[in-house]
Automatic annotation (TrEMBL):
Protein origin, superkingdom: Bacteria
Membrane-spanning ranges: none
Descriptive protein name: Helix-turn-helix domain-containing protein
Region named Disordered: 17-44
Domain HTH cro/C1-type: from-to ranges: 10-63
Pfam families per record: HTH_31
């Protein structure tokens, strides 16, 4: 596995989700320094980290292999499809506001704690 290529794809996914290194690191249960080392190819993430970020929407198959995993429409509930439709109709500014609000709410509920089962 080429660590640099993996790191580049990890950063690409972080950017796609509009997350900072701190935010993705928090989701994965690591600090910003470790997140940066993953993205620079200086370290490889472990399975617990990959599992946690996958739950947050990172395409881990792509990060590891460079191949995208297609999302089937049936993978989203009707409620999730409705939210995505609203989100797609918003301005960039409002999408970013909703993303930050959802992140804060998920963090407050403990949904980003990678140690939770």
């Amino acid at each position: 596995m080429q660590a640099r290529a993996l790191g580049d794809r990890l950063r690409e996914e972080r950017d796609r989700l509009s997350l900072t290194q701190d935010e993705l690191g928090q989701i994965g249960g690591v600090n910003r320094n470790s997140q940066g080392k993953y993205e620079k190819g200086e370290r490889n993430p472990d399975s617990a980290y990959l599992e946690a970020i996958a739950a947050a929407g990172v395409d881990v198959l792509y990060v590891l292999t460079g191949k995208r995993q297609p999302i089937e429409e049936t993978a989203l509930t009707k409620e999730e499809q409705e939210i995505v439709a609203y989100l797609r109709g918003m301005s960039d500014y409002n999408r970013e506001s909703v993303r930050r609000m959802a992140f804060a709410m998920a963090a407050a509920d403990g949904a980003l704690d990678s140690r939770k089962s």
